[in-house]
Amino acid sequence: MPTLNVAGTELYYERRGDGEPLLLIQGLGGNSAHWGEPFLRELEHDFELIVLDNRGIGRSAPLDGTDFTTADLAADARGLLDALELAPAHVLGISMGGMVAQQLALSAPEKLRTLTLGGTSAGGTQSKPTSPQIVQELTAAVLSGDRERVLRTGFSVVVSAPFAAEPANFAEFSEAARLYPAELNLLMSQQAAVYAHDTYGSLRGLNVPTLVIHGTADRMLDSSNGELIASLVPGARLELLDGVGHLFFWEQPERSAQLVREHAASAS
Predict the structure, then answer these.
(1) Dist CA 126 CA 201 (whole Å)
(2) Pairwise CA distance, residues 226 & 129, whole Å
(3) What's the rounded Cα separation, in Å, for the pair 57 and 32?
(4) Fewer Cβ neighbours under 10 Å: the N or C end of the chain?
(5) Is there a contact between 122 and 54 (Cβ–Cβ < 8 Å)?
(6) What is the structure's pLDDT at 195?
(7) Could you tell me if 225 and 122 are in contact, meaning their C-beta atoms sit under 8 angstroms apart?
(8) pTM (2 decimals)?
């Protein structure tokens, strides 16, 4: 099982595919299995994928009780790229992972070929946070201790209603989610990192070719957040996927991979 010690913690990663390196950074509660095979299979034709489990989750070492920020997670990602001697790399971050990717691009732009930010936010007072109703739904599900309720509530929130209505789609999602469930303390630590994230005042200085992808039916983070990021980052391209939810790469894996591929090619 491939792991590396980065900043004192063991990080799990996978490498697959052939081409220029592409680092994928997952969101809150997500691990490497949550990218879904259809999306990864599309990408591995054009990239060498580095699929990372953030600290404390999946097959990475459990948390030691220390608090962390999105900047700390970005330092982990940078350490992994350096240890594998893969920088500069294309970087894709989704949701919280998009916040981590922003921090990585701001702190070490020379490590990135391109940046793709999916379903994410710049944080701060100018961004639109997750609605209290959604937070309450998810919190109640987690505190119930009912794993099936957690999965079904989470699925209904992160994809569009039409996609959620198909039983086969939930079966595929739940299979990935059951593999390495996140502990409550880890989810709380990640949530604290998300709440503290704020790159609004820095993104105008970002000098990395940037693509922003956001579903217009995203209930976790409204698509206005993607529009805001794209308006701040110089030269950023915005791609809004009509009627698609938070996990756009689950709903439209081929289209999502095509967007990443085209963005990488245009920068090259």
Answers:
(1) 10
(2) 12
(3) 9
(4) N
(5) no
(6) 95
(7) yes
(8) 0.96
More confident residue, 193 or 150: 193
pLDDT grade for 1, boundaries at 50, 70 and 90: low
Report the pLDDT averaged over residues 204-211. 97
Residue 222's domain spans which residues?
3-267
Q: Which of 115, 5, 93, 103 is nearest to 55 (CA)?
A: 5
Judge contact between 163 and 245, C-beta under 8 A.
Answer: yes
Single-letter amino acid, residue 17:
G
For the chain, what is the domain count?
1
**Which pLDDT does position 192 carry in this prediction?**
95
Query: What pLDDT band is residue 46 in, cutting at 50, 70 and 90?
Result: very high
CA nearest to 71, candidates 50, 90, 99 = 99
pLDDT at 241 (0 to 100): 98
Q: Which residues of 162-192 are buried (b: 16+ CB within 10 A; e: fewer)?
A: ebbeeeebbeebeebbeebbbeeebbebbbe
Cβ–Cβ < 8 Å for 250, 173: yes
Per-residue model confidence as pLDDT tens digits over 128-178: 999 999 999 998 998 898 889 989 999 999 999 999 999 999 998 888 888
Residue 242's CATH number: 3.40.50.1820
Residue keyed to tokens 């996140």: 182
Residue with tokens 């993104």: 203
CA distance 255 to 241: 9
